[in-house]
């Protein structure tokens, strides 16, 4: 169940290739028509409220049946699951403008959803368990001090590597970006490339690299956070990695799929924790994990901690009932939360207490990934808009693939980000 590295549209796999957030929902004005997925009032349920719960289409087998099973088990409302293949983002954008859309839905929070009054605050249902969520999972769903969503799954993105190949070459797991570049070169042979970071050359590394250089997309006081010597140097290192001829390009599958490392095409791969079961099946115990390496000893490594979140639509005719259902499923039902995170790929349950008891996360590379996420995880800022993400992605393309001057490209991207911030906050 990969989460987003946002802003490339709403194919679940493609969604992972950029940095940004949910499309500006208010920009779409078409109302959602036809089948809303919500059962007709009173249809077989007496006086129970009827709720429609929307999901995008997950690729993992069993996920749709699991979502339907959870909904059926809820006795205080008639909950119907709407499973949406294709362009979920556009359908959701339209649906949130209408009372015929979802009551409950999954997404990632964008400040536009709050400013357009499309979601309701959920502080009351999470109040008693706030401390059981990681700070980042609260922050990514908070605007102006109010919490608007309950995290459903955590999807860390890290570098997995073949232990045997590093051992054979006498290479220790990289701790800095220079270590990573050096290791990738040494591990490259006429049959195996040192690392795979995506067929686009590594655009998904932009935000983790920024964090590992001491920067951020936005500062806490809503200013661009990606200028300065550290980010300039780090983005230049991403180009150095790309130009080293040690990066796999043209893989049959992209970085969100473990095919490249499983088939022996690379020694290291940037990918999400969701792929761990498939990698373990192919590689057994020959699998290690590191975060994105730090720029140098004065900085910390980084893990992109993505995820999906459950929201309640402000247009729902049954807001209170929808909130009650969200609390029941994503706060109270620990067994279902563990099932959702770990029976269909590997993910981290957002409730710390649930993750701590999950047997599949207690050992090996899964336990290591959990620890790295706790220590070095970064989540999305809801004030980071799609337009900012596009500018950031264009900056990365020019630097990584074209060798453009990082300082100049950063300055160009900052102009767009500042214009967006001015629009949002004045």
TrEMBL record:
Pfam families per UniProt: SBP_bac_1
Tagged with keyword Acetylation: no
InterPro entries found in the cross-reference section: SBP, TAT_signal
UniProt entry tagged with the keyword Protease: no
Keyword annotations of the record: Signal, Sugar transport, Transport
Record-linked PROSITE patterns: TAT (PS51318)
PANTHER family registered for this protein in UniProt: MALTOSE-BINDING PERIPLASMIC PROTEIN, MALTOSE_MALTODEXTRIN-BINDING PERIPLASMIC PROTEIN
Similarity comment: Belongs to the bacterial solute-binding protein 1 family.
UniProt name for this protein: Multiple sugar transport system substrate-binding protein
Source organism: Kribbella aluminosa
């Amino acid at each position: 169940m990969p989460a987003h590295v946002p802003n490339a549209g709403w194919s679940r796999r493609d969604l992972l290739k950029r940095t940004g957030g949910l499309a500006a929902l208010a920009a779409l004005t078409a109302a959602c028509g036809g089948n809303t997925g919500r059962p007709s009032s009173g249809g077989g349920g007496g006086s129970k409220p009827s709720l429609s719960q929307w999901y995008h289409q997950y690729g993992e087998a069993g996920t749709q049946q699991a979502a339907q099973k959870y909904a059926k088990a809820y006795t205080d409302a008639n909950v119907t699951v709407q499973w949406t293949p294709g362009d979920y983002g556009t359908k959701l954008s339209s649906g949130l403008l209408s009372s015929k859309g979802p009551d409950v839905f999954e997404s990632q929070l964008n400040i536009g959803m709050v400013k357009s009054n499309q979601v309701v605050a959920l502080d009351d249902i999470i109040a008693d368990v706030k401390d059981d969520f990681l700070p980042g999972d609260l922050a990514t769903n908070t605007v102006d001090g109010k919490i608007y969503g309950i995290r459903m799954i955590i999807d860390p993105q890290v570098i997995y590597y073949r232990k045997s190949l590093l051992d054979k070459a006498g290479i220790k797991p990289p701790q800095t970006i220079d270590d990573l570049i050096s290791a990738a070169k040494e591990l490259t042979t006429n049959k195996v490339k040192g690392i795979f970071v995506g067929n686009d050359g590594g655009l998904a590394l932009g935000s983790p690299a920024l964090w590992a250089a001491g920067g951020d997309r936005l500062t806490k006081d809503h200013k661009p956070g990606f200028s300065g010597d550290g980010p300039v140097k780090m983005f230049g290192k991403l180009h150095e990695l790309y130009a080293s001829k040690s990066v796999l390009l043209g893989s049959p599958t992209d970085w969100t799929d473990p095919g490249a490392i499983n088939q022996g095409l690379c020694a290291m791969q940037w990918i999400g924790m969701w792929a761990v079961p498939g990698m373990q099946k192919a590689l057994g115990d020959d699998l290690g994990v590191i975060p994105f390496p730090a720029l140098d000893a004065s900085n910390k490594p980084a893990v992109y901690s993505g995820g999906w979140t459950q929201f309640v639509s402000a247009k729902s005719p049954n807001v209170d009932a929808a909130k009650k259902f969200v609390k029941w499923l994503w706060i109270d039902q620990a067994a279902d939360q563990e099932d959702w995170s770990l029976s269909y790929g590997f993910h981290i349950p957002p409730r710390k207490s649930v993750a701590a008891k999950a047997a599949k996360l207690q050992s090996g590379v899964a336990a290591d990934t959990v620890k790295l996420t706790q220590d070095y995880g970064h989540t999305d800022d809801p004030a980071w808009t799609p337009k900012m993400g596009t500018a950031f992605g264009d900056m990365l393309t020019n630097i990584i693939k074209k060798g453009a001057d990082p300082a100049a490209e950063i300055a160009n991207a900052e102009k767009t980000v500042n214009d967006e911030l001015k629009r949002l906050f004045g």
